[in-house]
Each structure stands twice: as structure tokens, then as C-alpha cells.
Design goal:
The complex is a heterodimer of chains A (111) and B (115).
Chain A: E1 3-6, E2 11-14, E3 19-21, E4 23-26, E5 32-38, E6 44-50, E7 56-59, E8 62-65, E9 75-77, E10 86-93, E11 99-101, E12 105-110
Parallel strand pairs in A: 2-12
Antiparallel strand pairs in A: 1-4, 3-9, 5-6, 5-10, 7-8, 8-9, 10-11, 10-12
Chain B: E1 5-7, E2 10-13, E3 19-24, E4 31-37, E5 44-50, E6 53-56, E7 65-68, E8 75-79, E9 88-95, E10 105-106, E11 110-114
Parallel strand pairs in B: 2-11
Antiparallel strand pairs in B: 1-3, 3-8, 4-5, 4-9, 5-6, 7-8, 9-10, 9-11
The chains are: A mainly beta (111), B mainly beta (115).
Chain lengths: 111, 115
């Protein structure tokens, strides 16, 4: 069945460091891929998405490219800030219209 | 635009008691979802509605969980009787329609603790 495998955390970075959070997926057909973020005490918010191969989603300095050949959707940011501290979830929506979430990666950015 | 509303935000009950959660989706969103998020894990879909009909409830523990979406707007999720392992955050989400490209918008969740 469809599934998402996400890099385990927690991840701790210094401010202005480069961030990569790995996400790979297994799916039949052509899923859409998403990154959601959960800030402390808040609900899940959509960070970015890509709906077809080679699409790049971007928002707030974060980027992820839908790579069908490697079944990946890695999240990147060139320079993280303290305010980026949160839990990040990779998710896919497949042909069955069901969302599958990864287990989440906790990111802490220290000044 | 108002987001997805959920209540209560927190609930503490004893095992074998019953509990109900309420969700009001974004206006005009036809599809509504309930998720269970256990601490340290990603959300797991419990049930999906399209208008007031159930589309997918394959992962809903039907011996104790029930959900309804009367009139295709608000929804209620009930647990009866609750077990210790039901302690989790219950998330409601909505989307404009069904489809792999649809973005789901999440409410703040209801945190349930079963003692």
C-alpha cells in the first residue's frame, strides 16, 4: 500500500544552517506530495505541495522537488531561523484519496 | 476566511467513559476527515466524509468509535467506551473536494487523555 518514510529526528541546527529533511514514498499511480508543519501548541499547517513529477513546491524559504525517479520529496531550506523550530510532516495523497503521513521530524534551531 | 474549528480543545476522562468531539469545517468544503495522532507519530486517518456520506472508514475501530456528519457540514466523533490507548490528539480536517491534489486544512485538534 501507499506509505511515506521520513527521516527520524530530532534535528538540532544552529541559526543560518542548511536544512534537509529526507522523505521517500511508496505509491501506486501518481500521488500528490505535501509537507505540513506543526508549530508548538498549534495545529498542522500546509507548508508546500507538489502535484506531479518534477514540480517544485516552495514557501517561506523552504523548497521540495517531487522526484519520481528516486520516489523522494526532500525538504530543504538554505538558512534556518529560530522561528522554524517545529515538527515537519511529509505526506502523500494517492489514488485512494487517503492521506498518509510520515512520523514527523522535530527541528530545533538554536541561536 | 475562518479555519476549521474544533471543540473541546482538551478533555480528560476515565476509561470506560464516553466522549464526543465536534468539528466545523471551512465553509463550502465538501470533504471532511477525522485523524488520530498519537504522541510521537503522524496523524492516522480514521474516517472520511464526502458531504454527509462516508467515503472511507476502514481504519475506524467501529466497536467503540462512531462518527456522523449531519447535513454535510458539522461532524461529531464519539468514543464509547474509551480505553487508555485512545489517549491522543483528534484532528479534524477539510478540503474543497476529493482528489489527490486537494489540500487538507486542519483544525487545532482535541487533546484527549484517558485515565
Amino acid at each position: 500500500g501507499d506509505s511515506v518514510t521520513q527521516m527520524e529526528g530530532p534535528v538540532t541546527l544552529s541559526e543560518e544552517a542548511f536544512l534537509t529533511i529526507n522523505c521517500t514514498y511508496t505509491a501506486t499511480g501518481y500521488p500528490s506530495l505535501f509537507w505540513y508543519v506543526q508549530y508548538p501548541g498549534e495545529g498542522l499547517q500546509l507548508l508546500l505541495k507538489a502535484t506531479k513529477a518534477d514540480d517544485k513546491g516552495s514557501n517561506k524559504g523552504f523548497e521540495a522537488t517531487y522526484r519520481k525517479e528516486t520516489t523522494s520529496f526532500h525538504l530543504e531550506k538554505g538558512s534556518v531561523q529560530v522561528s522554524d523550530s517545529a515538527v515537519y510532516f511529509c505526506a502523500l495523497s494517492g489514488s485512494g484519496n487517503q492521506f498518509y503521513f510520515g512520523t514527523g521530524t522535530s527541528l530545533t534551531v538554536i541561536p | 476566511e475562518a479555519g476549521v474549528a474544533q471543540s473541546p480543545r482538551y478533555k480528560i476522562i476515565e476509561k470506560r467513559q464516553s466522549v464526543a468531539f465536534w468539528c466545523n469545517p471551512i465553509s463550502g468544503h465538501a470533504t471532511l476527515y477525522w485523524y488520530q495522532q498519537i504522541l510521537g507519530q503522524g496523524p492516522k486517518l480514521l474516517i472520511q466524509f464526502q458531504n454527509n456520506g462516508v467515503v472511507d472508514d476502514s481504519q475506524l475501530p467501529k466497536d467503540r468509535f462512531s462518527a456522523e456528519r449531519l447535513k454535510g457540514v458539522d461532524s461529531t466523533l464519539k468514543i464509547q467506551p474509551a480505553k487508555l490507548e485512545d489517549s491522543a490528539v483528534y484532528l479534524c480536517a477539510s478540503s474543497q473536494a476529493r482528489g489527490a491534489q486537494e489540500t487538507q486544512y486542519f483544525g487545532p485538534g482535541t487533546r484527549l487523555l484517558v485515565l
